[in-house]
Design goal:
This protein has about 210 residues and is an alpha/beta fold. It has a single domain, classed as 3-Layer(aba) Sandwich (Rossmann fold). Helix content is about 35%, strand content about 20%. It has eight helices and seven strands; from the N terminus they run H-H-H-H-E-H-E-H-E-E-H-E-H-E-E. Helix 6 links the parallel strand 2 and strand 3. Helix 2 runs antiparallel to helix 6 and helix 4 packs across helix 5. The protein starts with a helix and ends with a strand.
Length: about 210
């Protein structure tokens, strides 16, 4: 939790309280439904919360921004982003229903009104969004066809509407398959923990 406060010192009292509650809520739910490995739970704030918030070092979402989190798992990056940006609207989807159950319960416990979680595949989502986020779901070339028609046409953030991927390792080969322009941001430029050594945020305009 100290890392969150160090890198995001502007948090309100409510946001601090919500972030502080997160680990206990996930520990409680993880005892019933395994959504996070034990090793990752021990490093919860670094490996899940701070990792998710790397996106916020690339873009500061404007109020009313609509975000789709595809393959959200237990709620990453959507839950940390919902806390940090209370005026955005987030839809988180996953094909595994028990993970969505956990996400919805945690959002309710935290009083988050700006996030909705659904048990469905990304292809079946009917709404339009400004940004689509994802954390290590699949290769980019396979991911984009699921959601390429789900963007709003008008952009109003500092960056044009598009994808924000949390990925790791050497991505040159993977991203060359897509044949789209992109920007690569090294997370170690934002956060010093060794866990982030090979981690990146990839921004790709729609």
């Amino acid at each position: 939790m100290e890392e969150i406060l160090y890198y995001f010192p502007q948090l309100s009292a409510q946001q601090k309280e919500q972030f502080e509650q997160l680990k206990g809520l996930y520990e409680e739910w993880n005892a019933q439904i395994n959504v996070i490995s034990r090793k990752d739970l021990d490093e919860f704030y670094t490996r899940h919360v701070l990792h998710s918030l790397a996106i916020a070092k690339v873009i500061t979402f404007e109020a009313q921004t609509k975000i789709l989190d595809v393959g959200t798992g237990g709620g990453f990056p959507s839950i940390p982003l919902a806390i940090l940006f209370p005026e955005v609207s987030i839809l988180a989807v996953d094909s595994i229903g028990k993970k969505i159950k956990v996400l919805n319960a945690i959002a309710e416990s935290l009083g988050l009104k700006n996030i909705q979680a659904k048990h469905q595949r990304a292809e079946t989502v009917e709404d339009k969004f400004d940004f689509i986020v994802s954390r290590a779901v699949t290769r980019t070339a396979g991911f984009i066809p699921w959601v390429k028609d789900k963007f709003n046409t008008k952009s109003f953030n500092d960056r044009k509407n598009g994808f924000l991927f949390l990925k790791g390792g050497d991505l040159k080969e993977e991203l060359s398959e897509v044949r789209k322009k992109y920007e690569e941001f090294r997370i170690p430029d934002f956060f010093s923990d060794p866990f982030f050594e090979t981690k990146k945020v990839i921004y790709m305009p729609k």
